[in-house]
Amino acid sequence: MKQFIYRINGQEYIVAVNKMDNGLAEVAVNGSNYKVELVNNEEEITLVTRPASKAPAATATAAPKATTSAPTKPASGGAGSVKSPLPGIIIDVLVNEGDEVKKGQTVVMLEAMKMENAIQATQDGKVTGIHVSKGDSVLEGVALITIG
């Protein structure tokens, strides 16, 4: 059994991979059991079923390497949110809160599937919030920064 500790929005989750069989795995997240299906043999598994209990809602992404932080949960953002177009790891945040940005300007660098992706501002404006840090793992649709 392999165990990983993931931090999602400041909360730590203990993820134990109990059993792997033909692309299906049984994992326990903070003691709640899940059955997950292996999507990519190298990197991630996705949630197939959720327990009926009030366990914290965590999308278990149990990667073989425990060196990255837990995926950030998708956040609803307004029109000024720059969202991750795909799951990956933040390799650089190129702006600071309060910076003025132009539409199309690269604001975040995201590594996904061993490729660097330049994430660009969706509009002109001032950066009013930065929701990720270098090294964070994010899921598709996560608000990375907010432009006001």
Question: Which terms would index this structure?
Answer:
148 residues, mainly beta, OB fold (Dihydrolipoamide Acetyltransferase, E2P), 2 domains, five-stranded antiparallel β-sheet, five-stranded mixed β-sheet, 14 strands, 49% strand, elongated
Describe the structure.
- Keywords: Biotin.
- Residues 65-148 form the Lipoyl-binding domain.
- Residues 51-76 have a biased composition (Low complexity).
- InterPro entries: Biotin_BS, Biotin_Carboxyl_Carrier/Decarb, Biotin_lipoyl, Single_hybrid_motif.
- This protein is an all-beta fold and 148 residues long.
- It has strands at 2-8, 11-21, 24-29, 32-38, 45-47, 71-72, 81-83, 88-93, 100-101, 106-112, 115-120, 125-130, 137-138, 143-147.
- The strands form 3 sheets. Strands 1-2-3-4-5 form a 5-stranded antiparallel β-sheet, with no helix packed on it. The protein has a 5-stranded mixed β-sheet with strand order 6-13-8-10-11, with no helix packed on it.
- A hairpin with a 2-residue loop joins strand 10 and strand 11.
- The termini are far apart.
CATH-defined superfamily of the largest domain: RNA polymerase II/Efflux pump adaptor protein, barrel-sandwich hybrid domain
Task: Please tell me the total number of domains.
Answer: 2
Largest sheet: 5 strands, antiparallel
Gap between N and C termini: 46 Å
Region (Disordered): 51-81
Protein name: Lipoyl-binding domain-containing protein
Organism: uncultured Dysgonomonas sp
Domain Lipoyl-binding: 65-148
